[in-house]
Amino acid sequence: MSRKSTAVSYAILAGTAVYCLVQIKDKPLNTPHMAFAAVIVASATGVCKWGSENPCDGVVEVHKYASYFQLMFAMPCITTAVWLANEYKKDVSWLWTVISVFPFFYYFKETDIDAAVAEFITMIDLAALSVASFLGKNYYGIASALSYALGYFSKRYGESLEIPPQVCYNCCLCCFALCALKAIQGRVKQAD
Fold this sequence. Notes:
Blueprint: H1 2-23, H2 31-51, H3 57-85, H4 90-98, H5 101-108, H6 115-135, H7 139-157, H8 165-184
Helix pairs in contact: 1-2, 1-8, 2-3, 3-4, 3-5, 3-6, 6-7, 7-8
Transmembrane segments: 6-22, 67-85, 92-109, 115-135
Keywords: Membrane, Transmembrane, Transmembrane helix
């Protein structure tokens, strides 16, 4: 049952991210597009991995990298979008996304990179999104940060939950995506 519920949660998350991406399709191409696309790819590969009793090694491997890409870029891309919308300096605003590039490439090269680095970047981005949203009175931004934090910690430390931690994480990411969409709708600025 756990495999099926996890696959269904990935399908719902993929649908949510597709909805979010469609809502901003006419906006200038910017970091929210990358955030929602990362969630779509990780979710689609998650459906393939968890929806099959015996997924092939290729699907498992692609899902592993897609999930790490989502972890390293979904939150930072939304953080960058909110910072740009609040008209902070562009170089500082882009820092939130750029900082995730290096750990991702080290991970991709299969170099041992400590999970603490990913967690540190996630915490920094959560704080940056929360502060920028609070100062900009963007309550959807705050809600997206809280949703992401709840999902992140439920996946990381939620072994004692009644539902599988991945399912809880995916449900929280649905809330994150919808709140992030509301936080950036009408506020996405072109990155020049």
